[in-house]
Amino acid sequence: MRMTTTLSIAASALLLLPNTVTAQTPSAPNKQVMLQAISQKQFSAMPLLAQAMLLQHAAMQVRAAAETAAANAPAAPKAAPPAQATAASRTIAGRSVQETLHLTATAYAPTYQDNYPYGPVDYYGRPLVAGDIAVDPRVIPLGTLLWVTGYTSPDLPAGGFLARAVDTGGAIQGNRIDIFIDRSESEVSNFGVQQVTVYVLQ
User: Fold this and answer.
1) How many domains, in total, are found in the chain?
2) 3-state secondary structure labels for all residues of 4-57
3) DSSP tally for the chain: helices H, then strands E
4) Would residue 58 count as lying in a domain?
5) 0.70 cut: is pTM over it?
6) Is 48 part of a structural domain of the chain?
7) What averages of pLDDT result for each successive group of 10 residues across the chain (202 residues)?
């Protein structure tokens, strides 16, 4: 009889609603979780079993509300896949191409006449060698590594050659280059004036 009375008191305690707080879950806008509260005086007057049942009931309500909210929370955005690698830059002689120029080319020999007044040396005073070219530094900075192609000459490598901008010349202005060829003046003069493609390398 005592157990029945205690359970009855506990059940009655769960129905006490002097203060009601509502919490609305994201997944069910029209449903509300009722968090029932009673005064400390009322709670203290209850038998221990009733207090325990009331606390357990409140905890179950809170846990249910939290689980519902978690289940309906928006999924975390997935990490974006890595960007597709772009096509590799064109490379020549193991170096990437930075720029392509279409220039007018002439050639010069190691004669004093072609290298007045300092003789066959480059801008830095070093002896000219195959692969050296004269440029306008405003177009191609001195020291730039280049690949020159598109010419016709038996005195230059077929298909193109690796060159370095190491010289200048009074007549080399704008989109022009002068290619050093270590041959006689008569042979070099056969080069004439040609249109070439120059790749600026990294």
Assistant:
1) 2
2) HHHHHHHHHHHCCCCEEEEEECCCCCCCEEEEEECCHHHHHHCCHHHHHHHHHH
3) 4, 9
4) yes
5) no
6) yes
7) 44 44 40 48 70 69 70 54 46 94 98 93 97 98 98 96 96 97 96 98 94
